[in-house]
Amino acid sequence: MSERLDDATLGALVKRARTADKEAYATLYRHFHHRVFGLCRYLLGSESEAEEAASEVFTRLPRAMNGYDTSLPFPRWLLSVTSHYCVDLLRKRKVESRLFEAADAGVPEPTSATPSPLQEVLTAESRANVRRAVAALPERYRLPLTLRYYNELSYDEIAATLELTRAHVATLIFRAKHELRRVLSRPRPEAPAATGPSTTPGGRP
Q: I want to staple 168 with a disulfide (CB 3.0 to 4.6 A). Which of 46, 103, 116, 141 is the partner?
């Protein structure tokens, strides 16, 4: 994985990229492709679709940079561009019409300064286990949860991205966290004990 860019270096790269510097775009690709691909994979639920989407995001990046608000951190802006592109893909497939039906009665989002039960479970789990558990969530839960914790969007930003009300987003995220905690808390089946070749009473195989 590429070494982390400091703010000054990243700022200089973005400035060069906005002047159509191909080398600057190549460097941004090397440093951010993994994060963009990861977000696409979570949102689209498919490795192959995620690879195509990530490539398309970077193909469109030179044009998108014309609208980049430099007051925003570049990584946050890039992931926002990525999430909008993926949601547009889902919208074109008309998935949203069945994903985001009217929410059940709103569930208030609990707030606490201490780690939530979900945070404690996530801390104890490997990244691979968490990724598999998130990927297994129903898409109506996976999308808002991913935008909240991977893309670090506020509820209002998620609501705008998914064209939902803030209350609907809060309900979906609450239920997504509950489902994710339930899946990750399941006891894992123990691996069968290794057995050697059977033997006869005389000790011979």
A: 103
Task: Classify the phi-psi angles of 203: left when phi > 0, otherwise alpha if psi is within -120 to 50, otherwise beta.
Answer: left
Give per-residue pLDDT as tens, 97-114: 555 655 444 555 544 444
Q: Collapsing DSSP states into helix, strand and coil, what is residue 82?
A: helix
Could you give the maximum distance between any two Cα atoms of the chain, in Å?
83
Quick one: DSSP state of residue 50? H
Neighbours of 35 (CB within 10 A): 16
Per-domain residue ranges for the chain?
7-97, 117-185
Q: Give the fold, CATH level 3, of 7-97.
A: Rna Polymerase Sigma Factor; Chain: A (1.10.1740)
Residues sharing a CB contact under 8 Å with residue 108, sequence separation 6 or more, in sequence order: 170, 174
| Residue 125, helix vs strand vs coil | coil
Topology, domain 117-185: Arc Repressor Mutant, subunit A (1.10.10)
Per the CB < 8 A criterion, the answer to whether 145 and 101 are in contact is: no
Q: How far apart are CA 8 and CA 149, in angstroms?
A: 26
CB < 8 Å & 24+ apart, contacts of 187-191: none
